[in-house]
Amino acid sequence: MQTNVPDHAEKKKSKSVDVEVLLNLPKTLTKSNKKWQLAFIKIYCSRTLLNCAKHAISKPGLFPRSISYTTIDLDHNQHHHHHEEDFKIDTETLNDLVKNKNQDKLNSLGGPKALISSLKTNTRLGINEDPEEIQQRRSTYGSNTYTRQPSKSLIYFIIEAFKDLTILILLGCATLSLGFGIKEHGLKEGWYDGGSIFVAVFLVVAVSAISNFRQNKQFDKLSKVSSNIKIDVVRNGRRQEISIFDIVVGDIICLNIGDQVPADGVFVEGHSLHVDESSMTGESDHVEVSLTGNTFLFSGTKIADGFGKMLVTSVGMNTAWGQMMSHISRDTNEQTPLQSRLNKLTSSIGKVGLLVAFLVLLVLLVRYFTGSTKDESGKREYQGKKTKSDEIVNAVVEMVAAAVTIIVVAIPEGLPLAVTLTLAYSMKRMMKDQAMVRKLSACETMGSATVICTDKTGTLTLNQMKVTDFWFGLESGLVSCSSRVVELFHQGVAMNTTGSVFKAKSGTESGTEYEFSGSPTEKAILSWAVEKLKMDMEEVIQEHDVVHVEGFNSEKKRSGVLMKKKNGESNNVVHWKGAAEKILAMCSTFYDASGVVKEIKENDKIQFEKIIQSMAAKSLRCIAFAYSEDNEDIKKLKEERLSLLGIVGIKDPCRPGVKKAVEDCQFAGVNIKMITGDNIFTARAIAVECGILTPEDEMNREAVLEGEEFRNYSQEERLEKVERIKVMARSSPFDKLLMVKCLKELGHVVAVTGDGTNDAPALKEADIGLSMGIQGTEVAKESSDIVILDDNFASVATVLKWGRCVYNNIQKFIQFQLTVNVAALVINFVAAVSAGEVPLTAVQLLWVNLIMDTLGALALATEKPTNDLMKKKPIGRVAPLITNIMWRNLLAQAFYQISVLLLLQFRGRSIFDVTERVKNTLIFNTFVLCQVFNEFNARSLEKKNVFKGLHKNRLFIGIIVVTVVLQVVMVEFLKRFADTERLNWGQWGVCVAIAAASWPIGWLVKSVPVPERHFFSYLKWKKRS
């Protein structure tokens, strides 16, 4: 600061500037430093005031009283510990303001500007990033989180498992069996039969409840991740992304099309802002928000159009959205299409099981009451009136238990569990592979996809844009350009943007570093203007006022701004920026590099079109700038007879690995279609680079077309040509929706990627909507089924592979489960009808049920995807769940098991010279081991080598080992519990040999060819004929 300034006014002005600088010092200081800062400010201020007083008293004879001391109040705590006093407005007033749209109260407080001041923030700079200040705001006004419904406990799932009717019947049978057993044989011996059923039932319930509980916790975690939205805020003058949960009252939020409003607040700056409040009010009409009309913004609503800044006034539970969300419990009972198909299958099998169980019970009752059954000593069990009523009831209870257990085995309740397990497992793994599943059904549907319609920018390309080519008039590069043209470019770039430039002081010698925010295109243009054209964005903004804005529109592919200089000397000026050929069509003149305005003649137009085409052929996105001065209407921007300022070419390189991902999808029989807003030449160049267009396609005129051409076709023409289209350029969201509808009408299963708000209808219409995690708007994400977290097409290919894996794992489990069901039902039914007894007891069947339902589901549902899955054709929309290949495999194994076990049932005693109990143990042991060996066969439906990749699936190996160990324990150590007899080494060897034979049988059966046409379709055809 200069000291010897003669003019006192200058001196005062200079001092006031210094005071202002002192007051605006950063608050990121320790408490002791803050005290010293405060003391210094007070001393400095008192000296300044005294100095001013000396000059103010000019009358002679009047002398100011000299002050011999200065009092400094250093009790800094009284200001910072009373939070409500710190901020000039309380929580209740703020809450009432927005909730009730209380415009009168806002006006009485002094309007948005006064509110900003009361909350100690700034529209341009935002709040301080000081952790202490943010914590102070949080403790004063609350955090931006809401109370969630408590997660379901393990007890809840145990109770749910006990609600199963078959489990309740078994518990009833176990209770009766326990009662009669204790009465007949005493407590020491009599509890075994009933007690063992109890233990088996509780074991089944426990395993089922624990797996459901774990899966629910997994969904809870995913729910938290999906609700953690990133929000654009301004803090310390820097625009940055923070979590929605970190927002505090006083924050300045930047809002763009498609964003979710993260908290309640007041509009403070922006243009053409329209909000979709349907999530709060149910009204579909968009509400306009402006400084002159409605200024209130509600948490949870979506930005439909325009852009702006809002001041946060209420957060979390203080907002209507927070209170509403805290009362909504998340529904995890979503039924996927596959689950509903499996429920029908389960119901059909259950009915068969019910019929068999009823017949078995009938046969057992008839044989018992006709005296055909004998006890272990060879006496008839039923001897008319001589038989005690307790014995009759006990015998009937055992028969009912056996029949009910048949139902338990027959009903494949493991199917829904297998689906849930495989979906939960794949969701967890897909998260690691950069895909967040929002709707469960998308996991399995993706496996059936036949067409993927993908965006270009950010999905096929890196979304790291840079201006690499620019033309002023008809001259390329940074020629000696006139200052007038550069000035107009500064205006057009700085005023017509949703991005921003932050100039950060750095400790480096280079002086300042720039941070650019906004969309990748905006950042590329701002970076170019600042670095190459030496634009000072802050200066340009301060010199101009915005009159009207027309935000970027994916239909018109341009954005415009109407502005004027603050000194009011010039007229309103309009600046347009957008797709080069669209802007060129609006221009009648152009500026050359020397600043001379020339008319665009036919020759010049051809030259400009050639420039655009040559840039596009190099995969550049072409953006043109235009300008006009005579814009009289302040509500509408002039759209014709503009002056072209120049054209820039933005390079967005292809993602590494995208070509291979496209080839993988094409090899898997999935068609890739690129739908982009870029011009046809840029689109073609990128499509060739990514491998979407082959050399043959380039010769085919129908492979590449513009959205307008497709739109203008008749419906018949569209249906006839849509499958041949590979690239659609200059397309609008409506064109994308139209293409999806046409493909679905032709029977395709369609996956669509999208990132903009306008993509929402296509994302909803598609079978699988894939939104982008980085570039995607909140509206797009909410309309989608899966969020691709890294915006990479390679992740889309990974999702396809996982989708096929889910479907394949479920098919493996169905084959495994149905083999057990068919074998168990036939064996018990035949034995009951012929011998009057069932070889597999209730406890044994429950154990088999546990192996195949829960452990089998875990083993087969957690197989990882292999590259072999991408060598098959897509399943499509109407493929049967149980294929001919599955029928071949399961019927062969079931036939083998039934044959061997019935042979043991009727000839086992004589062949092995053993007692009845040992024979029954042999049947039980062989049956369980057959399932263990068949579990290996189920790992692959078609491949003969079922051991490939086995070492990578430790869970599968672990489950097999656990099953075998438990089976040994059941047979050798739990004789009374499982109703078994110990087996010698030779008998164990026989059981293992019989079970192991299922491997060579499986190998041979897989050599048998099956027709592609499904077996049941022949039956339908015969019916029709």
From TrEMBL:
Primary location group: membrane
EC assignment: 7.2.2.10
Keyword RNA-binding: no
Record GO cellular component, one term: membrane
Keywords: Acetylation, ATP-binding, Calcium, Calcium transport, Calmodulin-binding, Ion transport, Magnesium, Membrane, Metal-binding, Nucleotide-binding, Translocase, Transmembrane, Transmembrane helix, Transport
Protein localization: Membrane
InterPro entries linked: ATPase_P-typ_cation-transptr_C, ATPase_P-typ_cation-transptr_N, ATPase_P-typ_cyto_dom_N, ATPase_P-typ_P_site, ATPase_P-typ_TM_dom_sf, ATPase_P-typ_transduc_dom_A_sf, ATPase_P-type_domA, HAD-like_sf
Function: This magnesium-dependent enzyme catalyzes the hydrolysis of ATP coupled with the translocation of calcium from the cytosol out of the cell or into organelles.
Protein name, UniProt field: Calcium-transporting ATPase
Organism: Cardamine amara subsp. amara
